[in-house]
Amino acid sequence: MSTITDSYFSALIGRLETLREALAEPMSRAAAAISTAARADRRVYVFGTGHSHMLAEEVHYRAGGLAFTIPVLVGSAMLHEGAVISSVYERTEGLIRPIFERYGMQPGDVLIIASNSGVNAAPIEAADFGREIGATVIAITSFAYSAAIANGRRRLADIADIVLDNGLPPGDAIIDLPGTDLKVGPASTAIGTTVLNAIFADVAAELCKDGEPPVYLSANMPGAKETNQRLVKKYRPRNPHL
After folding, report:
1. Measuring CA to CA, which residue among 91, 168, 170 is closest to residue 124?
2. Structural contact between residues 97 and 129, judged by C-beta atoms closer than 8 angstroms
3. 204 φ, ψ to 5°?
4. How far apart are CA 43 and CA 39, in angstroms?
5. pLDDT value of residue 176
6. How far is CA 87 from CA 5, 60, 155, in A?
């Protein structure tokens, strides 16, 4: 293993160890909010733009994942339809609300928004929409990043009901590139997916108290076809991506 590779592994593991303690209380609150929503037959929506959209896909129809999660996918603000223009879309006001309206979010639902910088128009409007609907809004963001670039703008961290600070520096990357002023090794996706999966694992354990939780199986596992078909039949009416 090269020095730079080792540095990235060590830095990432160290940050996760720190966050395990630092986020214990807000992660517990997030798990409790999601468990409450699940028991009331509500849904959990996950949204992000740019690379943050991967957190929404991470929990969608995922082996070991909960079936009541719904990704909010906005092609123009992701990467596959044009990475450069997606950066423009996520900063343009007024684009997100009509997209969210088609998902049928209801009071008592949960909306998880991933935005490392936490100041762009898309996550801010999504948070406002969720609060107006009566959903619990959970943010995964960087306090340091948003504080450094806000310049008077509203921050996702100031709107959400529960905030999970990923502890990352402005710019995301965490490894200094020798001989330059550049940094490499972005960490928001690795940290965000770890935090999100840990919360959902906690939720699944809590729901076990009521019986078998709605957890998808890997398609290659015994009984997966029957289990997954049953879950899809139940949750497809409110999930346009199933």
Report:
1. 91
2. yes
3. -60, -40
4. 10
5. 94
6. 29, 23, 18
DSSP state of 140: E
Per domain, the residue ranges of the chain are: 3-238
Q: Residue 88: is its pLDDT beyond 90?
A: no
Task: Report the pLDDT value the prediction gives residue 77, as an integer from 0 to 100.
Answer: 59
Residue 199, SS3? helix
Token output for 205:
């354990």
Locate tokens 């015994």: which residue?
222
b/e for 166-205, b at 16 or more Cβ within 10 A? bbbeebbbbbeeeeeeeeebbbbbebbbbbbbbbbebbbe
pLDDT attached to residue 151: 87
Helices 188-207 and 3-22, packing angle to 10 deg: 40
The CATH superfamily holding the domain 3-238 is: Glucose-6-phosphate isomerase like protein; domain 1 (3.40.50.10490)
Nearest CA among 124, 115, 146, 125 for reference residue 49 = 115
